[in-house]
Amino acid sequence: MNIEVTRGPGLRTHLPYETMKAVVVEEYGAPLKIKEVPKPVAGLGEVIVKTIAAGLCHTDIHAAHGDWPVKPKLPLIPGHEGIGIVESLGQGVTNLQVGDRVAVPWLGYACGECEYCNTGWETLCEKQLNTGYFMDGSYAEYVRAYARMVVKVPDGVDSFEAAPLTCAGVTTYKAVKMSGARPSDLVAVFGVGGLGHLALQYARIAGASVAAVDLYGDKLELARELGADYTINAGWKDPIGEIKKLGGADTAIVLAVSPQACEQAYKSLRRGGTLVLVGSPADNFMQLPIFETVLNGIKIVGSIVGTRTDLAEVFELHAAGKTKVIYEKRKIETVNEDYAAVEMGLVKARLVYEF
User: Fold this and answer.
1) Of 33, 129, 220, 343, which has the most beta carbons under 10 Å away?
2) 207: region left, alpha or beta (phi > 0 left; psi from -120 to 50 alpha)
3) Element of type H or E holding 174
4) 139 burial level (CB within 10 Å; 0-12, 13-18, 19+)
5) How do beta strands 46-56 and 350-354 pair?
6) How big is the chain by its Cα radius of gyration, in Å?
């Protein structure tokens, strides 16, 4: 295929370029399109990764709908759970080699120079760019990434399991870290899906007991299979009362995209408990009682994904056989149906696209 390029007044030439198949968001809320688009070329400090697997995260759906106050770029190739092989290196890349298998995560760029980057909080960098949001992502045959932001995938980790770990895994691993969960603690996990089924495993690795809360029986059955000590169907029973019967939660981690779930999680805490907010509902606000928060010494924490070091630790735990990833393979041709299924709660855990 050729592209027409203008070089100076009235002078045109045709340069060949390669194309690739990709999922493209052209308009917020409109069906996604599968198109042939130009294959990216590696610039300074960048690599081109040939995609093997790309996970579907609920954030991809929010991006496609333009749900959040800060809108993603358009047109956009979604996806931030990409696993693939480094195909080419841009100028100045020394930390990777062609043939390396890497993860392309949500944190697509951080400046590396600010206070946040230099104190282990690169996920708070004010100059950050996010893959599949401000940068084109991994719902494509090839993805361009900053070489210093990708993470090598250990040989013992399957690519289709590594994909969900690249966001769902590192996000919930970080949330459990932020919660301060310890042995003898009770951790309540609100929302047992792509993220929640991993969160409860990390809480158990930390030594805590786990109460899993969801609206769907099949997801609660999955939670039991993965080691949850208690399961609560919030459609049938009041999760606040049920968790209070257990003495109250030391930590409640909210992965459900519902303000109501956030409020229930808050009310399930014992005195001195910690509420960790992870899920990001389109309806952006919850009611928070100030008096009870102060009186009961409640801590409220926002936790967003994790650093490259956190992701490397997630891969290490999985390679050691300490976590299990539940997923189903899909082809990108079904992306619109898959988005609808996730929104309706019909997906057990995670969907991963195969390239």
Assistant:
1) 220
2) left
3) helix 170-179
4) buried
5) antiparallel
6) 21
Helix (H) or strand (E) holding 170: helix 170-179
In 255-349, which residue ranges form alpha helices assigned H by DSSP? 259-267, 290-295, 308-319, 335-343
| CB-count burial class (<10 Å; 0-12, 13-18, 19+) for 75 | middle
Task: State pLDDT tens for residues 178-200.
Answer: 999 999 999 999 999 999 999 99
Q: Please report, for residues 150, 255, 280, the alpha-carbon distance to residue 276 in angstroms, rounded to integers and kept in the order given.
A: 26, 9, 12
Structure tokens at 63: 């991006």
The whole-angstrom separation of Cα 153 and Cα 12 is: 44
Q: Report residue 120 as tokens.
A: 């282990």
Please report the beta strands in the chain, taking only residues with DSSP state E, as ranges in sequence order. Answer: 2-6, 12-16, 19-24, 33-38, 46-56, 82-89, 101-104, 107-109, 129-130, 142-146, 151-152, 186-190, 209-214, 230-233, 249-254, 269-277, 299-302, 327-330, 350-354
- pTM, full prediction: 0.92
| Exposed / middle / buried, residue 10 (Cβ in 10 Å: 0-12, 13-18, 19+) | exposed
The pLDDT score that the predictor gives to residue 16 is 58
State residue 11's pLDDT score.
36
What count of Cα atoms within 13 Å lies in the side-chain half-sphere of residue 96?
30
Tokens of 330: 């899909």
Residue among 239, 207, 197, 238 nearest 323 (CA)? 197
CA 299 to chain centroid, in Å, comes to: 24
Backbone angles phi, psi at 335, to 5 degrees: -60, -40
What's the token pair of residue 74?
A: 């358009």
State how beta strands 249-254 and 186-190 pair: parallel
How large is the average pLDDT for residues 311-332? 98
Tell me: the pLDDT tens digits for 92-107? 999 999 999 999 999 9
Look at residue 232 and tell me whether its pLDDT is greater than 80: yes
Residue 272, token pair as written in the block: 């001195």
Residue type, 21: K
